[in-house]
Amino acid sequence: MIKLFKTAKPQVLIDNGSQWTMAIMQHITNGTNVPENIRGKYRHVDIKNQVIVETNGKCAYCESYVTHQYPGDIEHIIPKSIFPRLTFTWNNLSFVCYWCNNHKRNTIDKKCKLLNPYTDNIDEHLRAFGPIVMHVNSSKRGELTHLEIKLNRKELIERRVEAIKALQNLIDKYERETIVGLKEILRQEIIESSAIDKEFSLYLNQYLTDRGIV
Ligand SMILES: [Zn+2]
How many whole angstroms separate alpha carbon 83 and alpha carbon 154? Predict the structure, then answer.
């Protein structure tokens, strides 16, 4: 998980968000089921495209690229099942992978909330140690977040190890290179390969910091 920044609200939400919310709340007040054609409006293609832009096509929680293998889900950071009024609230929407979406429970502990990548400073709560992520500063919210969403699941660790190995290969090439121009190209490649739009950038950046390379 890395810090994310909210982009401009999509026009379709500006135009319809309040009306859709009122429709949902009306059904809840009346005790009737909210029809899927109202409840699912948050899946509008413009909304999905916009959350994909702001997460760089990665899961907001585990930083996997999700569009390659699985189309990915629009995430309600605060569960819509508890706060239906937030179903179409732009600041409550993000983009996540199938697995993180499934692990995250539809509950809220007011005393210890899951980290919100848009509003929390993630590095005050979580840090990468090689291919795993751990809570720091005795952060209970960090601990709850990585445990509940299972951010250290085996499949993720394996893929992070591969990403770190690929980065180390680049570092080895960089360190062996003696031609100044080629060395500079490799240095740029190292920086680009760990940029925030790349998969597992939290781990790759921390690796570079720990190796004293940035
Ligand atoms: Zn994920």
Answer: 32
pLDDT (tens digit per residue) in 5-47: 999 999 999 999 999 999 999 999 999 999 999 989 999 999 9
Please give the distance, rounded to the nearest whole angstrom, from the Cα atom of residue 58 to the centre of ligand 1.
8
Distance of alpha carbon 185 from alpha carbon 145, whole angstroms: 38
Q: Alpha-carbon distance 193 to 203, whole Å?
A: 12
> What are the backbone dihedrals phi and psi of residue 136, each rounded to the nearest 5 degrees, phi first?
-125, 170
Residue positions counted in the chain: 214
Decide: pTM greater than 0.90: yes
Compute the distance between CA of residue 76 and CA of residue 121 in angstroms, rounded to an integer: 19
Query: Any residues with CB less than 8 A from the CB of 99 and at least 6 apart, and which?
Result: 62, 150, 153, 155
Alpha carbon of 65 to ligand 1 centroid (Å): 8
Q: What per-residue confidence (pLDDT) applies to 172?
A: 96
CB 75 within 8 A of CB 60: yes
* CA 30 to ligand 1 center in whole angstroms: 36
Ordered by start, the domain boundaries in the chain are 11-148, 154-210
Task: Please give the distance, rounded to the nearest whole angstrom, from the Cα atom of residue 50 to the centre of ligand 1.
Answer: 18
* Strand extents, DSSP E, the chain: 73-76, 93-96, 126-129, 132-135
Residues with C-beta atoms within 5 A of ion ligand 1: 59, 61-62, 97, 100
